[in-house]
Every structure is written in structure tokens, then in C-alpha cells.
UniProtKB/TrEMBL annotation:
UniProt GO molecular function: alkylated DNA binding; DNA-3-methyladenine glycosylase activity; DNA-7-methylguanine glycosylase activity
Cross-referenced Gene3D superfamilies: 1.10.1670.40, Hypothetical protein, domain 2
CDD domains in alphabetical order: ENDO3c
Polar residues: compositionally biased ranges: 308-318
Family: Belongs to the alkylbase DNA glycosidase AlkA family.
Biased composition (Basic and acidic residues): 319-339, 381-392
Cellular component GO terms, alphabetical: nucleus; protein-DNA complex
GO biological process: base-excision repair, AP site formation; DNA alkylation repair
Protein name: HhH-GPD domain-containing protein
Record field: compositional bias (Low complexity): 1-19, 29-39
Record keyword DNA repair present: yes
Pfam families named among the record's database cross-references: HhH-GPD
Length: 469
């Protein structure tokens, strides 16, 4: 028993035989943690609190209108840039339209008398009157590229910054949107000017262009500079040739070319089937009774952008908030790759957006120079149920006195009816979140041909427009 060693005794013996542990070194206090060390803390030094710097917001500089002398100088720059662009083949001065607006007016009015009422109220700026604007495809296409995937206000600002890279003496800012200041005509760089820009990529990025848009603009300038694209040749092409030629350029999709055909090349018979605003407005136009006369929004009559039709309800400040701003890219038909969607995204062209109190009653419409249209004959295309006759509410005497107008509805292969179109406006859209298929749009507007571009311009002007065409 005496020789037996317990486990606890063995542990005690081993502990006594082991050398003593060296004491742990304390961290030397730094100047920033001396107060902590003095307090006896053995932890890491405390991180000093950062003081938040208060930056005072610099107010935006106000718009400074150019002086008469500056305006004259800008006008000279415009003429010089156009002449230089013509030498490079990027501009065609004084092109002649391939049709007469009066022929289009009479044709559409014969098909549907409502067109005459609309055209009496609002001149068709792209096609009516003497053609004075030069054909500048480089400017039109670059502007479209700069405006892709952003709001029209942002596109307007970036385009102006882009132009000032080449004409730095232009006013720093454009007049505020909706102001009464006259539109400032500005020059536009030629393709060679873009290619010769010092430190080109950094300069273009500094103007607000994304890396992808810089690539698009540079490639487009190269095509004009080496002769693959030329204004005179583009003007002479037919619509199909123009479409094939331009969609081969990176960043340019079908929708962009359709807008180019209407607003730059002034082609009379273009139907942009992929434009959701046109789809929706066609539904509205054909789902209503033609005995009602559409009216133009007073803001459009006053020369500002966009419009909804006049109605007593819209006078109360009704707004429509179905879709986000741009040309409702999320509602485009079909599936596209990301690059195709970027290429096809509308820039400053009108589409579906939410508006706050854009409408105005017929009294205000008349006061602002609108056509004299009686209240009961004003059709609001933003109300799917308006324009449908309520026969039960009218007395027999009213029926006898009322002017009977037969609703001439286009025949389609799938037997569309006004009721079907109204149901789509009320939420029952087609697959792909669209209002009408391209085939339906072609059949519904067949009688408008060969002047569908003119009709589409007015459709943008009377409903859902958000940019000045």
C-alpha cells in the first residue's frame, strides 16, 4: 500500500518539476492608446472615432441665356458643322421628301374622319411645311445611342455635354425642361471630330457615357469615316435596305431604326410594331366610337411635350401609373438578349409613363388655343369605356335626333372586336405583356397605308406622349 502512487500525486509531482512560465509581455501603449494603457487595460488599442465631415451642397448654377452675339456665333457654328459634315458624307443638306403631307392628310381623313379633326388642331412637325432640316444620320443615330436605357431628361443633359466636348463655348446648360426659353439650336460634331478627340475614351466617359456607349459611338463614327455609311446613300435606300444596313451596327436595334425612318429619313409608311405606346394607342383608337372627336392636350398645342386627351375627369388631375418611364422596356414583346435590349431601348421618343395631372378640361383647352370641340364630343382615349354609346341612358327622342355613325371596324384574321381591345386595355394583355401582335397591327392599320408614319406621329401626340417628337 505504501508503494502505491495515486494519480493526483503524480500530477502534483509533474507540475512541481516543470519550469516556471515566462510572464506575458504587455503591448507597449501607443500614443493613441496611452490613456487606455494608463487605465490598466490589456486589450488592443481603441480605434478613434471618425468625425463625419459635413459637406455643404453646392447649388446648381442657373441657366444663363446666350447673348445676341453668342447666338449669332452658335448659328455660324451650326452652319459650319453641317457643311463640314456634308464634306465627310455624314450630312445631306436640303433633301426632298418623297411624298406630300396634304396627300397623307386627305387619305387618312377619307379612311377615318377623326384624323381631319386631329390634324386641324396640331401641325405635323416632321412632315408638314417646307423641308428645311438637313438629313444628318450620324447626329440622329448618336443621339439615339446616348439616350438608351435612361430618361429623356438625362439623355438631354448627356447629349449636351457630349456636344460641348467639341464646342466648349456653348452655354454650360440647356434651358430647363418646360421653360419658355426658345429652343437652342446647337452644332453637332462630325465623325472625324469624334475620332480625333484627344484622350477620346476618358473624355467621352467624362461626359456621362458608359463604356459600352463609348464603343457604340466610336464604331458608328468609324463607319461614317471610312465610307461604309454615307448620308446620301442612306437617303436613297428603301426602308428594308435601311433596316438591314443599320441593325448591322453595334448598339442599334430594330426599334431605333424605325424611329430613324420616321423622324430622320421622313419615310411615310412605317409602323413600329414593337413600340408599346403605339400598340396601346391603337387599341384605344379602334375601341372607341368614331362619332367622338379626339382632342389634343393643351400642353402639346402650346408647343411643349406630350399629351393626354382633354376630358372633364382629367381636369381633376387624374394620372395614369401603369408603367415606368421609358418606352416600357419590361413590356416589350418576345425575348431578347441583353445587348439587343440595350440596342433597342428607346431614348427620347414618347411612351407609357406615369403623369401627375396632365389632363385638362375642355374649358381650359379652349382657353389655351385648342380647337372648339363641344364637351360631349371630346373623346378621352385614356378611358377604355369612353366612346361606347350608352343607349339605355338616352331617351327615344334623343335617339331620333342623334347623328347615327356606323362604327367601321377593320377586319382581321382573328376576328378582333372593340370589346376585345377594351379587355386588353383593362389588363388582359397578350403573351409577352403586349397589347397587339405585329400581325394584328398590320391588319388594323392596312387602310392607313401608305401614310402610317403620319398616323403614328399623331397617336404619340394625343395620348401617352412624354417627349416632343
Amino acid at each position: 500500500m505504501a508503494s502505491r502512487v495515486t494519480r493526483s500525486a503524480s500530477k502534483a509531482t509533474a507540475k512541481a518539476a516543470s519550469p516556471p512560465a515566462s510572464p506575458a509581455k504587455r503591448p507597449r501603449p501607443t500614443s493613441s492608446s496611452s490613456s487606455t494603457a494608463k487605465a490598466g487595460s490589456l486589450g488592443p488599442p481603441a480605434t478613434p472615432k471618425r468625425t463625419k465631415v459635413q459637406h455643404s451642397k453646392v447649388p446648381d448654377s442657373p441657366y444663363v441665356p446666350p447673348t445676341p452675339g453668342t447666338e449669332q456665333k452658335i448659328h455660324e457654328w451650326v452652319e459650319s458643322a453641317e457643311k463640314e459634315g456634308e464634306k465627310e458624307g455624314a450630312v445631306l443638306l436640303h433633301p426632298e421628301l418623297t411624298f406630300k403631307f396634304e396627300d397623307a392628310r386627305e387619305h387618312l381623313a377619307q379612311v377615318d374622319p377623326r384624323w381631319r379633326t386631329v390634324m386641324d388642331q396640331l401641325p405635323c412637325k416632321p412632315f408638314q411645311g417646307e423641308q428645311k432640316e438637313p438629313f444628318n444620320p450620324f447626329r440622329s443615330l448618336v443621339t439615339s445611342l446616348l439616350g438608351q436605357q435612361i430618361s429623356w431628361l438625362a439623355a438631354r443633359s448627356i447629349t449636351h455635354k457630349f456636344v460641348r466636348l467639341f464646342f466648349p463655348h456653348l452655354p454650360e446648360k440647356l434651358p430647363p425642361a418646360g421653360s419658355t426659353e426658345p429652343k437652342l439650336e446647337t452644332p453637332f460634331p462630325t465623325p472625324h471630330q469624334v475620332l480625333d478627340l484627344p484622350d477620346r475614351t476618358a473624355a467621352l466617359r467624362g461626359a456621362g457615357l458608359s463604356g459600352r456607349k463609348v464603343e457604340y459611338v466610336v464604331e458608328l463614327a468609324e463607319r461614317f469615316a471610312d465610307g461604309r455609311l454615307e448620308a446620301k446613300k442612306l437617303w436613297a435606300m428603301n426602308d428594308d435596305e435601311l433596316m438591314e444596313t443599320l441593325v448591322a451596327v453595334r448598339g442599334i436595334g430594330r426599334w431605333t431604326v424605325e424611329m430613324f425612318l420616321i423622324f430622320a429619313a421622313k419615310r411615310p409608311d412605317v409602323l413600329p410594331c414593337g413600340d408599346l405606346g403605339i400598340q396601346k394607342n391603337l387599341c384605344k383608337w379602334f375601341s372607341q366610337d368614331p362619332s367622338y372627336a379626339p382632342s389634343i392636350h393643351p400642353r402639346k398645342l402650346a408647343g411643349a411635350s406630350p399629351t393626354k386627351l382633354a376630358s372633364s375627369e382629367s381636369a381633376q388631375g387624374r394620372n395614369e401609373s401603369e408603367s415606368p418611364q421609358k418606352p416600357s422596356r419590361s413590356e416589350k414583346a418576345g425575348s431578347k438578349s441583353q445587348e439587343e435590349e440595350v440596342a433597342d431601348a428607346p431614348a427620347t421618343v414618347p411612351s407609357e409613363r406615369a403623369h401627375e395631372g396632365e389632363g385638362a378640361g375642355i374649358g381650359k383647352l379652349g382657353a389655351m388655343g385648342g380647337a372648339a370641340v363641344e364637351q360631349e364630343l371630346v373623346l378621352d382615349l385614356d378611358r377604355p369605356d369612353e366612346g361606347v354609346k350608352q343607349e339605355d341612358e338616352a331617351g327615344d327622342d334623343d335617339k331620333d335626333d342623334a347623328k347615327e355613325v356606323e362604327f367601321v371596324f377593320p377586319e382581321t384574321s382573328n376576328n378582333l372586336t372593340p370589346a376585345i381591345l377594351r379587355s386588353r386595355l383593362n389588363g388582359k394583355k397578350l403573351k409577352g405583356n403586349i397589347y397587339m401582335t405585329p400581325g394584328e397591327m398590320e391588319e388594323m392599320t392596312a387602310a392607313w397605308s401608305p401614310y402610317r408614319s403620319v398616323a403614328c406621329w399623331y397617336l404619340w401626340s394625343i395620348t401617352d406622349g412624354t417627349g416632343d417628337p
